[in-house]
Amino acid sequence: MAETTSASDSSFGRPWDEINDLGLQRYAKDLDARGYCVIPPEIASPNGLAERMLEACLDIAERRNGKRPDLDRGRPESQIDSPVGDTMKALLLEDPVFEESLMNPVLLALATYLCGYDVVLSSLTSFMKGPGTTRFRLHTDTQLPSPLPKQALVCKGIYALTDFNRDNGSTAFVPSSHKWCRNPVRRETSIGEGGNDRAVPVDAPAGSLVVFHGNTWHGAYDRVAPGLRVSVHLLMVRSLLRATEDFIGRIPQEALDRNPPRFAILTQQGVVPGYIDKDDERAKVARAQKFVSAYEQDSGVQLPAKR
Fold first, then answer.
1. What gap in Å lies between CA 224 and CA 79, rounded to an integer?
2. Closest Cα partner for 82 from 45, 133, 155?
């Protein structure tokens, strides 16, 4: 077992050691300077992860909608004029490949760098975006009124399962906007002619991973090319925030058994939910502490105390 680190070591030194070990220094520096980074497929997608996620997304879409999406031509449901396209939510428990996407050491190293070791998964969603004319307005994912805290409370990882570029309707970022610690207003939220001229499209080949700070202004361009842009989004938040999806007590034991102890922390098992009385509080704290202790013993990282 590794020696337990202090809170300051856990917050600063150890995440940087992990980034060094994985050769991610330039991407962490991009996060600091620009508020986002693009990690290429050869680093971001071990063992064909992106290709397997794409097949899983197509399989799930077929099960849910009754028809398999056509990546080259799109399908009627995706031809609505939507800035995000068809949305498939709550995917984590649909296929073990999504567990793998969450446990990807590259994603975890950068998410930890931004939000600490007690970061949890808030949601795991796939978007299948076809041609349209509506652009997704610039916003932040922190979702607090301005001014925003400088330290990241939220981060997001986007797996590009098909090529991301301007014609394909890629994500747009305003570089370095995370440093302004505020939300965009009025014309600053618009993309394209007459809008925010600082916004730039992301160019990322299929299999890439885009990671960004929750304060970074981002949106998406309309897709002008035929076919579908497919991506998987993992929204990560510090554990004190309310998560979008509720995983507490919902993760099957077999999923917990086949993953390392940090998987339980990432899926909110170490979070104490609301309680109704003292006995309920004790039971919920005890359950959460069981998972926290297992992770701390396995990793040597000390998480914030549960109350």
1. 11
2. 133
Domain extent, residue 301, equals 247-307
Quick check: is 1 in a domain?
Answer: no
In one-letter notation, the amino acid at residue 140 is T
Q: Which two tokens stand for residue 209?
A: 């991973």
CA atoms in the 13 A half-sphere facing the CB of 72: 0
Distance of alpha carbon 124 from alpha carbon 60, whole angstroms: 14
Sheet holding 200-201, edge to edge: 136-139, 218-220, 171-173, 200-201
Quote the CA–CA distance of 289 and 206 in Å, as a whole number. Answer: 39
Kindly give the residue spans of alpha helices, DSSP state H, lying in 66-138. 96-103, 105-115
* Contact call for residues 110 and 28 (beta carbons, < 8 A): yes
Give the chain's domain count.
2
Q: To which H or E segment does residue 20 belong?
A: helix 14-21
Could you report how far apart the first and last alpha carbons of the chain are, in Å? Answer: 26
To the question of pTM greater than 0.90 for the whole model, the response is yes
Low-confidence winner among 82-86, 161-165, 251-255, 298-302 (lowest mean pLDDT):
82-86
The first and second tokens of residue 91, run together, are 């995917």
Average pLDDT of the segment spanning 242-248:
97
Percent of the chain with pLDDT over 90: 84
The distance from CA 236 to its chain's CA centroid, rounded to whole angstroms, is 5
DSSP state, residue 9: I
pLDDT of 117 > 60? The answer is yes
Torsion sign across C-alpha atoms 250, 256, 260, 261 = positive
Is 169 found in the same domain as 50?
A: yes
pLDDT mean across residues, the chain: 92
Cα atoms in the 13 Å half-sphere on the side-chain side of 267: 26
Residue type, 94: E
Residue corresponding to tokens 């361009």: 221
Q: What's the one-letter identity of residue 176?
A: S
Q: Are residues 11 and 149 in the same domain?
A: yes
